[in-house]
Amino acid sequence: MKRKVEQVSENITKVTMSVSVDGDESLIDTKPIDFTRNGKRLLSQTQVSFTPITVYRYETDSSALMKKQTANGEVAYTDKKVKIADHDAYSIKLDLTIGSNELLLGMGQYEDGIYDYRNRTEYLYESNMRIAIPFLVTTGNYGILIDSESSMVFTSEGNQITFTIDCARELRYYIITGESISDIILSYHRITGMPSMLPRWTFGYIQSKERYQSGAELEDIVSTFRTKNIPVDCIVQDWFSWEDGLWGEKKFDKKRYPDLPSTVKKLHDAHVHFMVSIWPNMSTDSDNYSEFAGAGLLLPNSNLYDVFSEDARDLYWKQTQEEIMSSGTDALWCDNAEPFSDADWSGEFKKPENERYRVVKELSEQSMDPEFLNSYGLYHAKGIYENWRKSLPDKRVVNLTRSGYTGIQKYGTILWSGDICATYDTLRRQITEGIKMGLTGMPYWTLDIGGFFVVNDKYENRGCNDQSHTPVWFWHGDYNDGVLDAGYRELYVRWLEFGTFLPIFRSHGTDTPREPWRFGDEGDMFYDAIIAHIRLRYSLIPYLYSLGAAAHRSGDAIMRSLLMDFAYDEEVRGISDEYMLGPAFLVAPVYTPMYYQPDSVEIPDPVRKRKVYLPKGCGWYDLHTGDYYEGGTYIDSDAPIDRIPVFVREGSIIPMSSDISYADEKGGIPDVIRVYEGRDGSFTLYIDDGDGYGYEDGHCCDLQLTYYEADHELTISRSGNYPVRDSFAVEYISAVLKK
Fold first, then answer.
1. Given a cut of 90, is residue 65 above it in pLDDT?
2. Given pLDDT bands bounded at 50, 70 and 90, which one contains residue 228?
3. Active-site annotation holds for 338
4. What gap in Å lies between CA 272 and CA 278, rounded to an integer?
5. Are 275 and 329 spatial neighbours (Cβ–Cβ below 8 Å)?
6. C-alpha neighbours within 13 Å on the C-beta side of residue 374
7. Where are the beta strands (DSSP E) in 139-245?
8. How far separated are the first and last CA of the chain, in Å rounded?
9. In the predicted model, is pLDDT for residue 159 greater than 80?
10. Which residues span the domain enclosing 543?
11. Residue 645 falls within a domain, yes or no?
12. Does residue 515 belong to any structural domain of this protein?
């Protein structure tokens, strides 16, 4: 077996293992490779084994395709495929010996809320609610990036970890070392690409649901937001914008959307952006499908375009541009970017994990080369990004996608966690999964506030045009009556409070309405909490947009594990239900009911507190009350319906806006700089046009905000040629120790 060990940089090592085509050498290598930092061995490659496999392709006459409706829309299939041997490859097993103490983190986002993968197995494949990224980050000063687009299995037992890659020609992987987790993530970005710079409006509130049914309804919803003085920056058109029976056609139904450019202009006049859902699978009766079929640019045995072909990616963009983008659309929602999950997303009962992995793999391999089974969404995003940049040079790429893979962060993408259920258990697990995405190098992550599926077994209340009323394992919320149930309204508020402190703030789901006024009227505790948190979000726009700039420039995570800022504090090792939003805010979402159970049943003698750990090494201010606490302790924090525990680290500097209804209303300029006293601090306030790519040519400004505790003084220095004032009102928050 051939091996090549390259020192890419001081802290990045690339290993390549391969065998000759003639196969005259051993398929097992047991000679160790040690990886060190500062003279200390961190981990070792102990064995690599190659198992020969035959890769098959499946052929059929396209006329034999049939169609059916699934959880992923219209899907073309055939039972008359011919299995043909195509080429030889290998299943590859990489064994490594690691230390006994480090936590094993990252690797994307899944469903189960697993934080530390020590002594666990994870199946790395793409599916709804699963974003597999083979980048393992540890607390042992190293990370491991597997350079393969195949599905694979990770296992950990004691001090041994194994990656089993299903199909590859050779083994390639990187060992990244660093002083901190942030150092390791930055090196990951240097290998795979820096995160994109999203427009400012994406940090505002995004209103979505399944689904708005006409242009008139879109206009009415936006008008209601403005009439009620509720801030909003984007409204989303989910599926079925096309004519009935033409799934995935990138043309709007003219009966329901008679003048799309006019509708979009009205939204823009109200300072609201427009996002449209598009799909890679197209009805075999559609013009879009016919154009792809005629050009021979479909994946075999499917109605999916072939993302691995540049010509196909260009044609997909051409079809998107013809009506959707030319009408002024501001963002795309690339749904179903892991298009072969139907074998898993069906049936009344959830399959065991190994079985779910097997059926998705088998279905995918009937249309895709197994070497690239995990990267459909990656190439999908690549095509959107590259063509958008050429066609729309003055508008930044925004692509909300349900699936992603290594490197997708450089393509203007926002990832979200898929079609989750409305339960408190799901809410709890989502906190951990979001933290893991930050650890995996994806700064822009979000979820369906309120859960996508709300109904349990009251099938007549289902959304998604469901007519079958068939029990399915994934459609199991706890609230059959949606917003009519006080228990759901409470859950939704808690989810929205959590969402206020996520990188991207987006409400979405089926079964029940999602607009704020559906949860009560002014004076109702649920409604008032929703409005207060949307306004709180808008007060943080200058801070959040600056975090986006730091992510783009330095690879900084926005949603941060406590391990990233407090690695010296042993207590944070086991905490996966709190996180930092940038350097300032510690967020502790509430994930237990405190007022109502399902069916509006009141909770007797409720305890409305949430246990929170405040890391040591600094003091902390309660964001809501201003109370000050020493770090290194647990507290029982008040958690009434109008707030979740959020604490500000002393020394934090937070630029804030006030009284804005959309993110660009004041050009990103803060009204006040808030300083939380107690220690020296600094923050870089970033300002540019908020959209377009002028910043790539230096049309932007950094205001370096520095606070000196000894002088109780904030200084401001600037760099960059963007015209902006450099004096602001300053509010100093002083510590009064909470007894």
1. no
2. very high
3. yes
4. 20
5. yes
6. 28
7. 142-146, 152-157, 160-168, 171-177, 205-207, 234-237
8. 66
9. yes
10. 204-343+375-552
11. no
12. yes
